[in-house]
Amino acid sequence: MNLSGHIIVAATAWGQASAALHMASALPDIASIGGFRLTGSSDNADVTVGIAAHHKTDRLFHGHRWFLDLNRDIRAELVGLGVGRGPARAVAHVGVELLLDGHLLAQSAGAQMNSTAFGVLHEIHSDVASLVVDKDQDQWLRYLNKFTDRRAPINLGDPAAVAERLWMILSRRPRLMLDSNHINVVTRSLQAVKPHIDATAEDLVDELAAGLKSGL
User: Fold this and answer.
1) Counting beta carbons within 10 angstroms of the beta carbon of residue 184, is it exposed (0 to 12), middle (13 to 18) or buried (19 or more)?
2) How do residues 59-70 score in pLDDT, each as one tens digit?
3) What is the DSSP letter of 152?
4) Which of 147, 109, 112, 113 lies closest to 128, judged by CA?
5) First and final CA of the chain: distance in angstroms?
């Protein structure tokens, strides 16, 4: 699940309880993008719960038939059309997550949840500094400042834009690199599954939120 998806699932599970909790549910992915490891802890209970929520949401999502079936079908189709197994696996995984984010952020409620969560990031700096080792804390907080005014990504609901984004993301990973000649193939595969994602996204979020809150 991608950043905004985590925030929206957490916000659905806990309502307006804490924007800090919602924001913290995206922190492990934000850290990973920046090359940081969250090895420490926080005295802020909402931050602690949010991070735990992130990991449980990932387990629920990646084990859910919704994700597994879409991932399998896209991967098989792409391999059959000549895309390498590594790139096909990465596209199927990340492409589904990005399209899901795109749908959720196109809804006013999802966009508001995302905006509200990122809006409190600067308020919890002192609570999240200790999540990384001492020598990395200044760099970590400077990195987080880039996200303070983050706006919802545009075009994540557009399969062509997602295919282009995947090509750029995977270009940094030699074993997963997507041939530029396959961007159109990826676009068509994502277009084929987008109606299903759009039709089932809210039910999926409700299921994940229920599973998340019931056992955390």
Assistant:
1) exposed
2) 999 999 999 999
3) P
4) 147
5) 18
